[in-house]
Structure formats: C-alpha cells, structure tokens
C-alpha cells in the first residue's frame, strides 16, 4: 500500500463520523501489521464503543511486539466489560503463551460473565494443557455459555483425561452445549468419546447430529 493511502486512512480515523472511522479500520485489513498498528492505536480510546471494540479486535489480527502488552493492559484495567472481553478474545488470537496467567486470573476474578467467557475461549486457543483445571471449574458454574466455552476449550487443549467430566453434558437441554460436546469429542480420541458420538449422531437437533457425525468420522479416520 502506498503512503498516500495510509495518509487517507489516518485522516479518516480523525473523522467526526464514527462510520468513517470504522471503515478506515476495516481498510487496514490489507495493510502490513507494522504500519497498521500505529493507526489502530489512534482509536483505542475512541468515543464510539463500536470503534474501540473493532480496534481492540484488530490488535489480535495485526500482530506486532507491542500488541500483547496493550491488550493485557486493556484486559486488566479498562472499566468497560465489552472492551475487556474484546481484549481477552484478541489475546487468544495472538496465541502468545505469556497470556496464560493473565487469562486464568481474568477467568477467576472478573465480575462479568462475558469477559470470563472470552477468557475461557482464549485459553482454548492457546492450547496450553495447564488450562485444564480452570476449564473443569467452569463446567460447574451456573452460566451455560461458560460451560459451552469450557467444553470447547477442553477439546482444543486435547484434555483426554477430561472426557468423563464433559460426558455428563451429553443429555443437556441446551443443544449448543451438546454441539460443543460433539465438536470437542472429535479432538479427544477415546473409546468413550466414540460411544458418546454415536449417541449424539442420533440427536434430535440436526446441528448436533451433524457435528457428531463429522467428529466421529474424524476419529475413525485418525
């Protein structure tokens, strides 16, 4: 991308119209990270929450050395739970192992379920087996969405010894939980996983049945 293009983006990021600023952020998609991040930083404290959210997410995609520390600071200090959730999600996209402790602390300490949900998802993205304990704890919480995230993440980190813990959700009333379970079992090759997937492949909800069939095929081919 030529300098004049970057200059135009920078000008649009200063626009009084939030839609212009969002379009400018979107146009950074094709810009190299080293050039994009300084422009993204210009709107991290934007008056529009949509613009801020988009900028935080962009830091997880346009990765430079400073993105990690910026996202950790936002996650630990921003007063808006939406921005903290975005920062937790973006840290997962970075797939930087340094984020593990921060994400675990966030899961235990943040007061909003959405932030804790994003932290659990990102712990799965890191694929760090140390996350097993915190994810198992999430299964026992009252929030269904956290259970969904934890089941999926346990599959991501390939926690074979957690199969018994997640199989109790095979007859959950929430079909999304059953779908996440089917998807997770596809990453956990055990005899119990195959048996459960055969059961879920006959589920009354088509998306659950499809997910189970795909997971079963993956295990049988693997």
Brief descriptors of the model:
single chain, 222 residues, mainly alpha, Leucine-rich Repeat Variant
Structure description:
The chain is mostly helical. It folds into three domains: 1-64, no CATH class; 67-157, Leucine-rich Repeat Variant; 170-222. It has helices at 3-13, 18-26, 33-41, 49-61, 67-77, 81-94, 100-109, 113-126, 132-139, 144-156, 163-167, 175-185, 191-200, 206-221. Helix 1 (3-13) runs antiparallel to helix 2 (18-26). It is elongated.
Which residue ranges are poorly predicted, with pLDDT under 50 across at least 5 consecutive positions? none
* Number of separate domains: 3
Query: What's the CATH architecture of the largest domain?
Result: Alpha Horseshoe
Q: Specify the CATH homologous superfamily of the largest domain.
A: Leucine-rich Repeat Variant
Number of strands: 0
Please write the string of helix (H) and strand (E) elements.
Answer: HHHHHHHHHHHHHH
C-alpha Rg, in Å?
A: 20 Å
Structural class: mainly alpha
Topology:
Layout: H1 3-13, H2 18-26, H3 33-41, H4 49-61, H5 67-77, H6 81-94, H7 100-109, H8 113-126, H9 132-139, H10 144-156, H11 163-167, H12 175-185, H13 191-200, H14 206-221
Helix pairs in contact: 1-2, 2-4, 3-4, 4-6, 5-6, 6-8, 7-8, 8-10, 9-10, 10-12, 12-14, 13-14
